From TrEMBL:
Name of the featured protein: Amidohydrolase
Annotated Peptidase M20 dimerisation domain residues: 170-255
Organism: Planococcus antarcticus DSM 14505
Gene3D superfamilies the UniProt entry points to: 3.30.70.360, Zn peptidases
InterPro entries: Amidohydrolase, Bact_exopeptidase_dim_dom, Peptidase_M20, Peptidase_M20_dimer
Coiled coil ranges: none
A Pfam family matched in the record: M20_dimer
Amino acid sequence: MDIEQRILDYFNHFHSHPEVSWKEVETTKKLVEIMTELGIQHHTFPDVTGVIAEIGDGPEVVAVRADIDALWQEVDGKLQANHSCGHDANMAMVLGALLYLKDETLTKRVRFIFQPAEELGNGSLSMIERGAIDGVSHLYGVHLRPIEELPFGQVTPALYHGSGIFLRGKITGVDAHGARPHQGKNAIDAIAAIHQFVKSIYFSPFESYSAKLTHIQTGGDSLNIIPGSAKFAMDVRSQSNELMKELQQKIEDGLIAIAKLHDVEITFEWTDYTPAAEVSDTAMQIADAAIRKTLGDESTAPPIQTTGADDFHFYTIRKPELHAAMIGIGADLSPGLHHPDMSFNHKALDMGARVLANTVKSI
């Protein structure tokens, strides 16, 4: 069987067996099965999912990372795990790169990091803590891109992801009878104020950012009770790590002011922070040359700024001297990442695998 077909078979398997963050047990078993079948040195962990494999010899270590978790979302009316995130494709492309490289004479070690829990924004930290980038000089990730960013046949040497974080909050007021609103402290009034407040936050329009409510839970089945308590959540994004700090401070100040205005208690916590990209020019230039060598100048796209986030960038935040970049693969992907019906041109998988392999060989 040729490598392109094997890559497609890998994709089809992972696509048909999605598992959500930290529960990628069968995915990990399948990766171990593949490594064993190929005779590739590998190891797993007793306390978390994921696999690290390595080929080649020499003192220098370069690495390639694939995220392995799926989303939990409604598909055709049913809540289920679903690889609309494209991580099934990322695994297939990285495995394809391994296939292209495993019989080459390598003067360095190539480490393959199959990382759990990217969708929660902290799976990379678990790999860092377990030595995944110890001794690594260069690190590459890979990800399919939506069609509005990159069409099929185009590949970019670097994705400049933005920063993302969630806020989870609780409002504690006082319940009251619907006929006696003056006796209560209505949590919905505070929720409405929070909604209006986040829409009035302004920074320079030359850098993208957003803050929006994504979850509200309050009240019960009795419509004559004014609810005193509510839970809410926000999704907050910015193109840089510096602006994210300013945005968080602005939101915190606003929540404190709203609590005082409505005489309620508002408690909150920030969770699942994902940093903005810190791209190495060296890594980007190596990938650019590899794309040109693999696919030609006409298929080499410039770096892309994207509002999405990826915990890949924790690797460089925790190890600033690491030369890292995430390669973006055009695949005519639509309607979009995280859409339950996401689809793409599967021929992009082999393209991504070959670009990755040539990038690693070029170091």
